[in-house]
Amino acid sequence: MGAHGASRDYGSILLGSAAESPVHRRIRIQALLTASIVLANLVGAGVAILLAGVGIPEPSVFQSRLWWVNYIAVPVYIAAAFVIGIVLGTLVVIRDLTWSIQGRAPTAKDARRTQRAPWRLVVIQAGLWAAATVIFTTMYGVIDPALIPKTFFVVTLSGVVVVSLSYLFIEFALRPVMAEVISAGYRRRKRSGIRSRAIVAWLVGSAVPIVGILLVVLFGVFRGKTSKLDLFVGVTVLAIIALATGLLLTLLTSARVTGPLRSVRTAMGRVQGGDTDVDLVVYDGTELGDLQVGFNAMVTGLRERERMHDLFGRHVGRHVADAALRSDPELGGTERTVAVVFVDVIGSTTSAAGRSPTEVVDVLNRFFAVIVRSVESRGGLVNKFEGDAVLAIFGAPIELGDPAGAALSAAREIASDLVVEVPDLSAGIGVGYGRVVAGNVGAIERFEYTVIGDPVNESARLSELAKRDPCRPLASGRAIDAAVGDAGVWERQETTTLRGRAEETVVYAARMAD
Q: What's a Gene Ontology MF term here (predicted)?
């Protein structure tokens, strides 16, 4: 995406922008990974302490003979596990994300390693907590065998919480590099990815605590010293843990869903506002990633449609293009009353002989630009470029209130602007008016929009007469009579029979500027 949503390219402001440098991205990802692992383990440690001290008070782990386990062995292992976890995690990240650190495109092997990196980091955490389960259960069990089931349950439950949180945190932190892998074409879609995340949230937030509650009740049933108060406290603590961890995991899981949806919604708002220069960063490997890919494909299609519309409009005129896109064009036409302006260059052959082809094209393009500007500013259609001549229509395909007045005004402006902007060329300009057939002419495989009728011939013949004095466009009497505006600046010049026509034409010329 562009600057508009740069801070949320990956669904969260914490992940930075897609335009961020590789160095800054590496620092950001490493910091997020370290913070994620530390936070997940702190939550797990808190759960373990709460369960061991309050949730399942008996048998107690705070016996005097366990002082060396509680105050030496456990803290030493926790500190060592933190260091080992962070060091191993950093080594895994450096090895699997070397391509990203070096700022190069990933290979297929790099992509596979990157896609497996979250699981490798999670396996490290799972291994450390599995080791903790074995070590602590053994230590406490050697001194008091009654602590074996309690220790095993507490450490295992805490480890499951840590592993689940770590996976969600790590996947979140690695979104930027996942986006690079996906954009490089190595997208491996996870089947039912959203469902898997929901199952993880349910497992830790509901299933494990409920199993824990059942085990606490079983401990109470088979242990005669357990009071009703002990059972109540144990069940209450587990319920509170379930509420807290369930809420946390639900928020994390929902954030994984709302992030991509929010980016799509924001981008859709920009597209609705007319901005199709939008490309979402695809960073999710689940069904939500399919949504992002589909949105990008849709916007690409819209951009292509706009480009084709613009190109089509440049060839046939924007009004004709709009009409064709609104409905299927058909061969044939309808009668319309229009004004026609015909502009023909004087001495084009002589002019071309003294210039190179490139120079001729450059001059003609400047000549045509003057005509197009004047015609389109008055609602007309430049219908054809016939060599070095131009045919413009006023009143079709879009109806105008005063087509004759618009044509007369455009003719005078073209004549005056050509003198200033294209002094290398001069042209005869004629204006005709009357009934024509306007529509699509040709074959169903290839046709064009045009007008056919006497006014077209009339304007062409008048342009021939106008070549005697290119500064004064000529118009037919019918055009002058039909005009609401601009007719007052034209004066009657002659009555003549134009070439190829049987009846006489009253000819008017634009008055010379004072």
A: adenylate cyclase activity
Q: What is the pLDDT of residues 16-38, one digit of tens each?
A: 777 777 778 788 888 888 888 88
Instruction: Spell 177-189 as b/e; 16+ CB within 10 A means b.
Output: bbbbbbbeebbee
Q: Identify any residues that bridge with 438 across adjacent strands, giving them in sequence order.
A: 451
Q: Which two tokens stand for residue 417?
A: 């602007």
Chain segment 194-225, per-residue pLDDT in tens: 666 677 667 666 676 777 777 667 766 666 56
The answer to whether residues 357 and 486 belong to one domain is: yes
Given a contact cutoff of 8 angstroms between Cβ atoms, the answer to whether 476 and 340 are in contact is: no
Indicate whether 265 and 379 sit together in one domain.
no
* 170 and 284 within one domain: yes
In 3D space, the residue among 481, 340, 448 whose CA is nearest the CA of residue 400 turns out to be 340
Tell me how many domains the chain contains: 2
Q: Are 361 and 274 within one domain?
A: no
Q: Are 367 and 425 in contact (CB under 8 A)?
A: yes
294: tokens are 């589909």
Q: Higher confidence at residue 3 or residue 279?
A: 279
Same domain, 70 and 211: yes
In DSSP terms, 432 is beta-bridged to 340
Does a structural domain hold residue 14?
no
Contact 273, 82 (CB under 8 A): no
Q: Which residues contact 53 (CB under 8 A, 6 or more apart)?
A: 61, 62
Q: pTM for the complete prediction?
A: 0.57
In a domain, 480, yes or no: yes
Q: Which residues have C-beta within 8 Å of that of residue 129, sequence separation ≥ 6? A: 44, 155, 158, 159, 162, 163
Domain ranges, residue 141? 23-288
Measured in degrees and rounded to the nearest 5, phi and psi for residue 408 equal: -65, -40
Instruction: Indicate the DSSP class of residue 115.
Output: H
Which of 257, 248, 241, 114 shows the shortest CA–CA distance to 182? 114
424 to 102, 341, 347, 363, 367: CA distances (angstroms)? 59, 21, 11, 8, 9
Nearest alpha-carbon partner for 436 in 506, 361, 367, 333: 333
Examine residue 492 and state whether it is found in any structural domain, yes or no: yes
Give a yes or no: residue 499 inside a domain. yes
